[in-house]
Write a structure and sequence with these properties.
The chain is built from ten helices and eleven strands. It has 265 residues and is α+β, with helices and mostly antiparallel strands. The protein folds into two domains: 4-140, Sandwich (Jelly Rolls); 147-261, Arc Repressor Mutant, subunit A, CATH 1.10.10.10. The strands form three sheets. A four-stranded antiparallel sheet has the order 1-8-3-6. It has a four-stranded antiparallel sheet with strand order 2-7-4-5. Strands 9-11-10 form a three-stranded antiparallel sheet. 32% of the residues are buried.
């Protein structure tokens, strides 16, 4: 099994840190083991920590007024979190839980507070991490607000395959994700997600497995994600859900539902 240092070498942000800071982070950290569904951080908690996923996956979620939990993001290995609380010292605004058995590297809070006082350069690197997250959030929000259902779903599948854009030179062929989680991540109803995934599968773009999705034709998936009307993928007939075809960059019917009426389970 790879060491924490070897795993972190896969993270561009961490690799760009000065060697002394990288070593200090490793020497002043602990590895937390999480079981599936175990809570790591809870909304309202005042803990201030910087952490990185080493193994498994963490789900970032919030709650609707009716108490329903909504998944906002999935963070996989070499994804960092916690930097917003370091800047504003505010309680956690989201809940973080393990979506599978996971390992998380947590930087010692007392060390980090002292290091920020003695080495202000670390603030700049944390600012870069925060800016990357903000840029990603804005891009994702733009897709969710303005794109038809097939485009949303294709974009999210590609993001999951590329570890939310962290990997520029590779991607996963098989994605571990449940359809109800995809529904939350795309602001679509689960039936809509199911119909679109089956349509993608009929056209040889993906293969559906229990709890997993295998990407067979990344090129066609990228064409759908770009809403490229000149591509072969744009001409696909989405079969039993014709109202959800990619058409003129707009959503054709009410197949998209908000979370408050999204079937769960």
């Amino acid at each position: 099994m790879l060491t924490a240092a070897e795993i972190l070498e896969q993270c561009p942000w961490f690799c760009n840190l000065p060697a002394r800071i990288r070593l200090d982070f490793l020497e002043n950290s602990a590895i937390v083991e999480l079981e599936k569904n175990q809570r790591f951080l809870v909304i309202g908690e005042s803990t201030c920590c910087l952490y990185c996923v080493l193994h498994g996956a963490l789900g970032i979620s919030t709650y609707l007024e009716n108490g329903e939990e909504v998944l906002l993001a999935v963070w996989e290995p070499v994804s960092w979190g916690g930097e917003p609380t370091i800047f504003d010292r505010s309680p956690w605004g989201c809940s973080v839980h393990a979506m599978k058995k996971s390992q998380v590297l947590v930087i010692n809070e007392a060390y980090l507070a002292a290091a920020l006082r003695t080495n202000p350069e670390i603030w700049r690197f944390l600012g870069q991490l925060l800016a990357m997250k903000l840029r990603f959030a804005l891009q994702t929000a733009g897709v969710l607000m303005s794109s038809p259902a097939p485009v949303r779903l294709a974009n999210r599948l590609l993001l999951l395959a590329s570890n939310n854009g962290l990997w520029r030179d590779r991607s996963k062929r098989v994605i571990d994700v449940r359809q109800e989680d995809l529904a939350s991540l795309t602001f679509l109803s689960r039936p809509t997600v199911n119909e679109l995934l089956q349509a993608f599968e009929r056209h040889g773009i993906i293969k559906l497995c229990y709890g997993k999705i295998e990407i067979l034709d990344a090129g066609q998936l990228e064409d759908i994600a770009r809403n490229d009307k000149g591509s072969e993928a744009a001409c696909l007939d989405f079969g039993r859900c014709p109202a959800l075809r990619v058409s003129h960059g707009r959503q054709a019917d009410s197949g998209v539902q908000r979370h408050d009426d999204t079937p769960r389970g």
